[in-house]
Write a structure and sequence with these properties.
Blueprint: E1 7-10, H1 19-24, H2 31-37, E2 38-42
Parallel strand pairs: 1-2
Length: about 45
């Protein structure tokens, strides 16, 4: 049986400040629920 792979996603600056990416961190410990189901493969701000 094939192992199910986790989703993969990346964040990238769409503007010069990166404020939108920092706002994602405002979900606090809920980010741990996200990484349980998906791998963050690129995030320059984090």
């Amino acid at each position: 049986m094939a192992k199910t792979q986790k989703l993969k996603f990346a964040f990238y600056w769409a503007a010069s400040c990166g404020g939108c990416e920092i706002a994602v961190l405002d979900i606090n410990e809920k980010i741990l629920d996200v990484v349980a189901k998906a791998d963050i493969v690129f995030w320059p701000v984090a």
